[in-house]
Amino acid sequence: MRWRKTVNALMSGVTAACALAAVAPLVFLLGFLTWKGASSLNLAFFTQLAKPVGETGGGMANAIVGSGQLLLLAAIFGVPLGLLGGIYLSEFGGWTVPFLVRYSADLLASVPSIVIGIFAYAVVVLPMGHFSALAGGFALGVMLLPIVVRNTEEFLRAVPVSLREGAFALGTGKWKTIVSVVVPAGLQGILTGVLLALARVAGETAPLLFTAFSNHYWAQGWSQPVASLPVMIYTYAISPYDDWHRQAWAAGLVLLGLVLLVNVLSRLVLARKMAARRLA
Amino acid sequence: MSDPAAAARARERVAEVTQNQKPEIPQEKEPARMREILKIRARKVDFYYGPKKVLQEVSIDIREKQITALIGPSGCGKTTFLRTLNRMYETVKHARAEGELWLDGDNILELELSSLRRRVGMVFQKSNPFPKSIFDNVAYGLRVHGIVRRGKLAERVEQSLRAAVLWDEVKDNLHKPALALSGGQQQRLCIARALAIDPEVLLLDEPCSALDPISTAKIEELLFSLSDRCTQVIVTHNMAQAARVADYTGFFLLGKLVEFSDTKTMFTTPASKETEDYITGRFG
Q1: Architecture of domain B30-129+200-279
Q2: Which residues of chain B have a CB within 8 Å of the CB of A180?
Q3: A44 touches chain B (CB under 8 A)
Q4: Which of A171, A173, A176 lies at the smallest CB-CB distance from B118?
Q5: What's the whole-number average pLDDT of chain A?
Q6: DSSP assignments along B141-193, one per residue
Q7: Start-to-end CA span in chain A (Å)
Q8: Residue B186's closest CA among B166, B202, B172, B205?
Q9: ipTM
Q10: A74: closest CA among A129, A145, A131, A132?
Q11: pTM for the complete prediction?
Q12: What are the extents of the domains in chain B?
């Protein structure tokens, strides 16, 4: 009896310690980033371009805007396609085609991001002859696509059949029912999923290295190389200059902050939505 | 009862019951036999889910502007039969109906789906208002069928809500979400939504099974008041309900229509032993 109790106490302690250890990296990461990066965060960081080596100060305004541009492009490439694909999987199709699409989407989601970068390099950069925001946005869009497809499918499947039947019973056609009842009922979840997916690809570096490349100045247009926060972090962190290292920490803090913010906000919205559904 | 909102609702209900003890049932309804216009005729209808036959040679006459109840134990095919009348079964793969089904002079199995469902409305077991405003719920079918002028919409929405005896409760909140209504109100909203497109026949699939007795009484009252407006076919588990609301009753067992007659005959002198056993509660 005593032995059993001892084992219970021991294992409960071990599992609790492991659970703590699992969340510890996030806590340390946040603390470390804040410690290292917060001191370099100032208005200039958000409004100015990088200063030449040797001069202190300056900022990453171009990288912040560049990341925004890339995400916008990624959304344009990935979201409409993903939404319509998700609608198809949930609402149409027999067995074989949806199975293949679903399986391929899951595979695509697990393709290493550097490989997606090479793919974008081959289909966009090589034909254009140079790096560009377009190529970077395309690479991120490809990463976005499977997440949006599967997420859309799942939220549409969660819409009760009874709602569809209610619309059908009024003589509504299938597409009209989807557009006017099913999609609106799942829309909040779908959009939250899109935001989460965007937050997820916002931190991708590998696919941008040889697509969007980087830029020390403001981008000259969508077909030119553009700076982004992750690539900036990479470049600055491997540089030999202390000042750049501090900037990289600050950039890391900003990126993580944005991603966490989007994450927490969208999950809050989603949780409220789910709670409302349980009540209904 | 620690929740004050629940307590308040309970108080309201008590007040409702005390004010409104009996649903008003019209005393002398026109004798059912006088009305012999047939709205729906089914002749030897068989129904299959894939290879499985779930309805066998169902033949029934649904009389116009009368309430016909379909009763029987779970799985007897009454809901399946109801869903053949507006071809709702078509959402299920490999489901098919055979035989003759006539709505006035039109073959139900061949009518264009949208126009069939415009003429034959349906209310479901669990209320299923769309996650839209009260107004948009009722206006939904109208818009689908091409009525979009604001004035016309508002007029038809009001008419329908009045017909469903919901108008007084919601007239100041037409733009509130329908899901904020109580269960009974939601079901009446669904009835209003079905009525808005002015169906000739209204199919009701156990419309009260998820409701408390007071909401049920309100819906039953409502069905009475609708019987000069459209033909109603109601599936119910509740035999007392069938006896209360229906002019005609059909008893289903194992996919067959065992007996069909006017409600009084059915509940006083059933012709078949099985019907008698069922309505006296010996099985089911």
Answers
A1: 3-Layer(aba) Sandwich (3.40)
A2: 140
A3: no
A4: A171
A5: 89
A6: HHHHTT---HHHHHHHHHHHHHHTT-HHHHTT-TTSBGGGS-HHHHHHHHHHH
A7: 48
A8: B166
A9: 0.83
A10: A145
A11: 0.80
A12: 30-129+200-279
Dihedrals phi, psi of A44, to nearest 5 degrees: -60, -35
Task: Convert A28-59 to b/e letters by CB count within 10 Å (16 or more is b).
Answer: eeeeebeebbeebbeeebeeebbeeeeeeebb
CB of B173 closer than 8 Å to CB of B134: yes
Check residue B284 and give its pLDDT.
Answer: 56
The dihedral sign for the CA sequence B175, B181, B185, B189: positive
Strand partners, B262: B248
What pLDDT is stored for residue B22 in this prediction?
Answer: 46
Alpha-carbon distance of B284 to B280, in angstroms, equals 10
Name the burial class of residue A233, with classes exposed (0-12), middle (13-18) and buried (19+) by CB atoms within 10 angstroms of its CB. buried
Specify the DSSP element, H or E, that contains A26. helix A2-37
A-chain residues near B121 (CB < 8 A): 169-170
Give dist(CA A69, CA A75) in Å, integer: 10
* Residue of chain B nearest A94, judged by CA positions: B93
Q: Which residue has the tokens 């029987």?
A: B72
Per-residue pLDDT at A280 exceeds 80: no
Grade residue B23 by pLDDT with cuts at 50, 70 and 90: very low
Q: Name the residue type at position A160.
A: P
CA distance A136 to chain B (A): 39
- Token pair, residue A151, equals 């997420």
DSSP per-residue string spanning B99-150: EEEEETTEETTTS-HHHHHHHEEEE-SS----SSBHHHHHHHHHHHTT---H
The closest of A175, A157, A90, A166 to B136, measured between CA atoms, is A166
Task: Tokens for B70, please give them.
Answer: 């379909």
Residue B13 has pLDDT above 70, yes or no: no
Using the beta-carbon criterion (under 8 Å), do A180 and B140 form an inter-chain contact? yes
- Contact criterion met (CB below 8 Å) for B258 and B251: yes
pLDDT computed for residue A92 by the predictor: 87
User: Which tokens sit at A48?
Assistant: 């100015």
Find out if CATH 1.10.3720.10 is the number for domain A43-50+61-279.
yes
Coil, strand or helix at B228: coil
Beta-bridge mates of residue B122: B203
**At B263, which amino acid appears?**
T
Cα–Cα distance, A148 to A117 (Å, whole number):
19
